Structure formats: C-alpha cells, structure tokens
Amino acid sequence: MTDDRDQAAAPDPDDAKSDQSASDLLGAALGGAARRAGLDPATGASTGHVVWRAMGGWRGILESVLPSLAFLVLYTATQELLLSLIVSVGIALVFTIVRLSMRQPASAAIGGLVATGAAAALALWTGRAADNFVWGFITNGLYGTAFLVSALIGWPLIGLAVGFLMSEGTRWRADARKRRAFFWLSIAWAGLFALRLAVQLPLYFADNVTALATTKLIMGLPLFAPLVAVTWLAVRALYPRSEPSAE
C-alpha cells in the first residue's frame, strides 16, 4: 500500500502542466505583439529596419511625440491648462481617426488616445498640469515591475516572447547562455522604466511641468530605440541564421 506521505510529496503533473500552459499563453501573447511590431528574429531584417518598424515609422513617431510636444509648447507659452489639453487630445484623436478611415491597424493609436484622454481628465479634475503625466508614471511602473519580477523568478518576458517567435517554446531555459541573455535584457528594460521614474517623479513633486514634459520626450523614443537595437542584436546572436548549403 502506498504511503500517503509519498503521495503528498510527489509533484502534481497537473500543476506542472498548468504552469507550462500559462507560460505558453503569455509567450504567445508577447510574441504576437513583437511580431506585429516587426520584431521577429526569423525575418532576417536589418537592425535599422527593425528599430524603425518598432517605432512605427514616421506616423508612429508623430503619434508618440506630437501630443506631448503640443502640450509642452502651448502650456509653456500660455500657462493655459485647458487649451493645452484640448490640443493634445485633439491631435491624438486625429491620428486615430486617420488610421481608422484608412482601415489600418489602430490599436496603438487608440491606446495612445485613451491614455492621453485619461491623463487629461485627471489633470482637469485636479487642476494641476503635472497630473497630466500620472498615467505615464503608472504604465512605466507596471512595465518595469513586470520585466523585473519575470527576470528574478527565472521567466524573463524577453525569453518568453523570443521562445514563441523562434518556435522554441520554453526550451531556451535549458540553455544557460540564453537564460543569462534574456535575464539581463529584461533587467535592462526594467532599468529603462525605472530610470524614467527616477528622473521624472522629482520633477512631478516639484510641480516643474515644463521640465517634466521635456524629460518625457527626451526619455521616450531616444532611449527606446537604442534598447530595441541592443535587444535585437543580442537575440540575433543567440539565434544565428543558418546559411543555405552550397550544392
């Protein structure tokens, strides 16, 4: 007769299967998002092309920069919160309408519009222009925490996404070189979000709106693009393309 204690100590295969399926689902979601952004190592695209696609090209850059730039310029020049917010949200709305009218993928533009509108609503409600940046603090905190925690528990988000894109699943965890690379890449992304908070939160509490808006622009795409390039090059080094054999 089997000892009950042995049964209690034995690992439950259902739990392992559940953990595996959860990682597969998360990897599929992250990998799908990366593929839509043009970050698929299997394509063999150049680093410059990948970074450009990740930023969304000229339209993506304008959608990311113009609402914040309009708010910065108008508020600095006029100190009129309502006018600055209306123009900022209006620009985001125009970009979204253009994408929808052209039947192009509008998820990023809609997400930007929702974030811009929510931040503007909070600023209008409190009457503080600095509160227009609170939503950015929340998203940076959430993203940074997700990258950091995933790396520390041994399931870095970068690895899950790449494993899906390369049809490897979670087998990369058996390769120490890949585990180290994905760990440090995830730590680097967590560091980017943490750096934004470390620089911008003191400006928020000091109510220095002009400096806060300026640093948000500087620490946006100018920091995002190089880290995308580093991540891409590191992944390509881990998964070199096989050259066709000569007949």
Overview of the structural elements:
By secondary structure, this protein is mainly alpha-helical. The chain has one domain. It is built from 11 helices and no strands. It has helices at 4-9, 13-36, 47-55, 57-78, 81-101, 107-126, 134-152, 157-165, 176-205, 209-218, 221-238. α4 packs antiparallel against α5 (81-101) and α7 (134-152) packs antiparallel against α9 (176-205). Mean pLDDT is 81; it is low at 4-11 and 243-247. Pfam families: DUF3159 (PF11361). The chain crosses the membrane at residues 56-75, 81-100, 107-126, 146-169, 181-205, 217-239. InterPro entries: UCP010219 (IPR016566).
Offer a few descriptive terms:
247 residues, disordered C terminus, mainly alpha, 0% strand, globular
Helices, strands, pairings?
Layout: H1 4-9, H2 13-36, H3 47-55, H4 57-78, H5 81-101, H6 107-126, H7 134-152, H8 157-165, H9 176-205, H10 209-218, H11 221-238
The secondary-structure element order is HHHHHHHHHHH
Helix content: over 70%
Number of helices: 11
Strand content: under 5%
Number of strands: 0
Poorly predicted runs of 5 or more residues: 4-11, 243-247
Number of domains: 1
Assembly annotation: single chain
- Largest beta-sheet characterization: none
Termini distance?
64 Å
Secondary-structure content class: mainly alpha
**Shape summary:** globular
Look at the structure and give the mean pLDDT. Answer: 81
Could you tell me the radius of gyration in angstroms?
A: 22 Å
Question: Summary?
Answer:
This protein is globular. 76% of the residues lie in helices and 0% in strands. The chain has helices spanning 4-9, 13-36, 47-55, 57-78, 81-101, 107-126, 134-152, 157-165, 176-205, 209-218, 221-238.
